[in-house]
Fold:
Amino acid sequence: MQIRWLGHSAFEIMSSEDLKILTDPFISNNPVCPVTVEEVDADVICVTHGHTDHFGDTMEIANRTGAVIVANHEHSVYLAKQGLEAIGMNIGGSVKIHNITITMLNSNHSSDMDFIDEIGAGGSSCGYILTLENGRKIYHSGDTGLFGDMKTVVRDIYKPQIALLPIGDRYTMGPFEASIAAEWINPEIVIPMHYNTFPVIKQDPEDFARRVESLKKETKVVILEPGQIYEE
Ligand code: NI
Ligand code: MN
Structure:
């Protein structure tokens, strides 16, 4: 299994059965993304919310590759109007695609589709648990503040081994809050995201790593550069 960071909250996850899952594909306007939209391939695209730095190039990539889009109900309605089919779902539900189970969880954020005129569309923001064929679970929190579900629903019920958490601050948790999130979630691996894309979310991931280390020795922080892969 490989997890390749494309910068911000965009990851390309290659499962052990070669299924390519793309999360929050913010590619073309992402100043740190190492690939072009044309180079991206996907079987499944998971969108956490309607902000342009997450919804990103979802439609272009789905159009070209035929990838299945997984998003909240409101996004699926919008996508249907654009002629694209999405698997719409909502908080607490799961869908199975090939041998991967995708569970939508709460996140503490907003979700307006800020690229269309009528602000108000977009439903709720969310996070996902991706349960891969080998049983490994990846938690992509989406944009979020620290919230109590992380130590109840996420940790006690889903028990992800890998957590992808934002550390950029301002719009999401910063390193301090994200280190507490890591302590609560108790994963084996945590990969920081949503930082150093723009000056306003500039952060030192080593600071985050030190904080996690001091709270939770069993959790390993894997810091990736955009384009780099974590493999297991
Ligand atoms: Ni956002
Ligand atoms: Mn964001």
